[in-house]
Every structure is written in structure tokens, then in C-alpha cells.
Please model this.
Amino acid sequence: RILFMGPEGKRAEAPAACLIYKKDSSATDKKAILHFGPFVANQMPLSAKGQRRRAWTLTIYESDIQEIDYQNATDDIPCLWKTALWGGYQDRRALRRLKKLLPLTLNDVIAERHWKFGTGLHIKAERNKSKGKFNPAPLLAGKSILETNDLFTFFFVPDEILRPLPSERQFIRQRSGQAGIGLLFAPHILISATHALYSDKDFIIPAPKVGIAASREDADYLKATAFYLNSSVARYAHFFHSPLWGISIGTISPETVGAIPFTRLSTEQVRKLAKAYDELAGREQAYLAEYAPLQGAPLNLQNEVDREVNAVLNIPESLSMLAREFMQVRYQLSKGKLGDTAIKPPTGDQLKEYGEQLRSQIDDFTRRHHRITIQTGLEAIIATVEVTSEPHQLQVIISDKPSSVARDILHTVKEQHSQWAYVQRSIRIFDGPCAHIIKAARLLDWTRTQAVQDAADLISEVLDRTEPHYESVTY
Model:
């Protein structure tokens, strides 16, 4: 979208890749594959000029570079290249853990319970039907159809987005047949790329949207399923199991939805999740009732959804954190976007969470306590890890006194690789009992997930040694 732009400013939509290869003379010990997937948010000059500008230089940012194990590539392990572009080893490990926690897929549960599942109906007006591919469907007479792509509610279907289907549009594609017709009867779920909506109203789910329909006896189970699909964990797994989502078009399919990890729910689990769904639906309806139809801003209930799903399905906090932060921060960079939240400076609370995660990871590994001090700045931030002899855990210290030291260091290490390419690194400085991490002042670089990675980098270099005093080394 950035490198390939037409004369009128229209962005290319098809994904592009450049492969660099050479003949390998070694019979064994294949070298790792170097993978570089640059994001617009890391192209500083382009970010400053705005999204409509052309990119004349490319910044090689270290977080965009990964090494892929040759054997993993040969084995074609699931989600390998999707996580290489969008995440990393943490994400591959998280997806494996999630598969163990939730050993079935949504497809398995749907098949066991004999639910209807698939893409909605392909509706056409009579004048547009071509070469007999569309047949009249008298069953649709008097039915309503969902008439919007922008769903502004998350837990109920408002009457404002349903329209009676006129008689001249009561024609359906032959292939969509019975499967799509079965989805219009409630109770059913409308599934989009962002969330799943349960409804007990009959209405037509149009293609290419995906739906699930069940019997009245399974209404609560279906509602519980919708609640789970709205969780960060389910959306995170859906994103990485979808080959196109986040790379090319953003549509979903029954194949990718059906691959979402799931499990058989007990009667008690169904009761808890269905009750939570009803409670949040009531809150959302009450909130939107204060505004004119379609005018109220959405009510953000994601944290409540995640807490309930994690508790009912016993999802570990570390896995939930990774999924939640991915959907709230890194996911914003899709389709060449800068991500308003991702590139904004982190708040004091967010830096404290980063520091606590960093401290926890390092303390647990080294079995001693470290002092974490974070000094904020307008363009760069310094996090200092200090080895101590304290017997108890230490509080993270956040200093909001502006300093230009971190900014100056980051500017100094920016290296011009060629006329068109620059290399920008984050910095780790080891000075006696202290290690300093210096990075740009962007939330993207200061999440709890990034703290886990930063701790691993420090541990691998210094903190697994037994002596608290180290030789000064600058990277």
C-alpha cells in the first residue's frame, strides 16, 4: 500500500513480497531464514509526513526482523509465516498452549451439536440475476435483512439495521441454497471480523458474512459461544489462523472461523457465559438508549468479556495478556495504518505495567530482586534495571522529569546503510550493576508483551550470570 501507489494516489491492495535466495552448499545445519516484514509505524519519515506521501526511504527496524528456523519452515508448522510477520516466537508458543487448553475447534462443537454453519445468502434483485444463477426464494417473503457493514453494537441487533426485504430482491444464488436459508432463523449468531452478535430475531444474514444457527434448546449454548468468540483470545487465534486477515482482504470465511480453538462447555460454563452475555447486552442497550439511533459511541466492554472468559475457561493470565495487547495495539497496524494508540506515548500506568512485567520476568529467572526505574521523554524512554541485594520485591519507579538523553542516544545510533535505507535500533547499555533499555516513546515498544521479550534479551546477555557486577558493554 505504501511502496506501490498509482498516479492518482490509489494504494495497491494485493500483498507483495521479495524473496532473496542463493544455492546452499552445506548438506546439514541449514542456516536460519532471515525474515524482514516492515510496518509503516516503524517508518519514521513516512509517519511524520502523513499516509498519503510516497516512501522514498526505508528504515530497517530491529523489531521487524526475525530468524525462522529452517526445519520449522520445511515442516510448514501452522501459522509460521503469519506469526513471523505479525508476531514472533511468543505468539507461536501461545497458539500451541491455547490448542492444549482448548483441544477442539469451533467446527468440532458445531458438528457435535448439529448446528447450521456457513456463509449467509447471496441476495440479488431480479433485474440483476444472470444466466439462471439466481432462483426465486418465496421463503424470504416478509423477512428482514441486515443492511449495514458497520456494526456499532456488540451484544444485540438493533432494529435500526434491519430492513424488510423487497419482493424484487427475493432471489438467491443457487449455491447458497439451504445452508444460507437455515441461518436466518433464530437463535443465531452473526460473525464478523471484529465480533459475534447473538440474536433471537429472525433476519437474513447476507453473504459474505458468516453465521451459526441452532435450535431453541441450544439458545444459551449459542449465546455462550458468541460470548467466547468476542474474547481477545478467540479473536487473536482467529487472526493468526486466517491466511488473508491482516495481509490482504479483511473478510472472514467459515473455514477460518471453524478453526478457532474451542472446547465442550459444561452446563455450568454455559450458564455463566450466557448470563454474562445477557448482562452486557442489557448494559449496552441502556447506554445506547441515551442517544439518537446510530449516534452513540460504542461502549467498550472488552475487559469484562476477557475477564469472564478467562475465569470460566481457565485461560492463564500470560496468554490472555498476549492476546489482549495484540488486539489493542499491534493489530491496529493492519492495512498500512499507523495505529493511533500504538504510536502514541505510553501513559504512566502503561509504563508501570511494563516495568512490573519486566521485573517479574527477571526476578523469577535470577531469584533475586531488581530495581526498575523508568524515565519518560517526549521522543524516547529509558528503563533501567538495577541488581540489588534487597530481600523483598521493589516498587517500579516512574520519573516524568523530561530528559533529552534517551532521544540523543537513539539519534546517534541511527545508521545510514545506503542512500535509501537506514537502520534504527533500540539500545541496551550495561553499566556495572545496571542495564539500560532505550527505545522510542511509543506504546508499541512498551507493552507487557514487549517487556517479556526485553527480559529474555537481557537474561540471555547478562542477568543469568551469578556476579552482580559486569563489564560495561554498549550495543
